[in-house]
Design goal:
This protein is an all-alpha fold. It has helices at residues 40-51, 54-64, 70-83, 89-110, 128-142, 147-162, 182-190. α3 packs across α4 (89-110).
């Protein structure tokens, strides 16, 4: 389905200029003021009340059904609450576990079976061993025409990376491991 560009008139030049946020007087943004409540319990109740509204609940169920983790959704909700000046970042981190449990309950009531609760590393579709096998097959299929010269260059680059770097005073140690010299003492005195 193509998007009709006339339906959404976007002016590419209608955006903030670089550094424009630094020209605004401090304290105008909601998150630059004290939070609306200092109680974690009150903030949690307000957020839970908001996610249990029918329209919000329907949107959240749709999001959780798309394999988006509950942890990500909870982080987005508390980030929005912080942006609106409702709570502080510390309060947001304290509310997140309660919010995750509430969202899992909503998903359970909606009958979502394969619910992703936490963010975890994504396993690649193929293993790294498979990737190296594919690369070796591609190199073999390419033939041995000019590959000898490239291999020599790759080996030289590898040797250069493994060689220790020589320091200006002839040592190969890093600057942290070196013993102080007279030159260093004179530099420290000048500073």
């Amino acid at each position: 389905m193509a998007i009709d560009p006339d339906a959404y008139p976007i002016d590419p030049f209608h955006r903030a200029k670089p550094g424009q946020s630094l020209t605004a007087p401090p304290g105008e943004a909601p998150y630059e003021k004290p939070p609306m409540t200092a109680s974690v319990e009150e903030a949690a109740e307000a957020i839970l009340e908001g996610i249990n509204e029918p329209i919000q609940k329907e949107n959240l169920i749709r999001l959780m059904g798309t394999d988006l983790s509950v942890e990500t959704i909870a982080s987005g909700i508390v980030m929005q609450a912080f942006s609106n000046g409702m709570l502080t970042p510390d309060m947001a981190e304290l509310i997140k576990p309660v919010l995750v449990l509430a969202l899992v309950g909503i998903a359970h009531d909606a009958g979502i079976e394969n619910l992703r609760i936490f963010n975890k590393p994504v396993t690649p579709p193929i293993s790294f061993d498979s990737v190296s096998d594919i690369v070796s097959k591609l190199e073999n299929a390419r033939g041995t025409g000019d590959s000898g010269e490239e291999d020599t260059m790759e080996m030289a680059d590898q040797e250069q990376m493994e060689a220790p770097m020589d320091m200006p005073d002839g040592s190969s140690e890093g600057f942290i491991n070196r013993e102080p010299t007279e030159e260093m003492g004179m530099m420290e005195e000048q500073i």
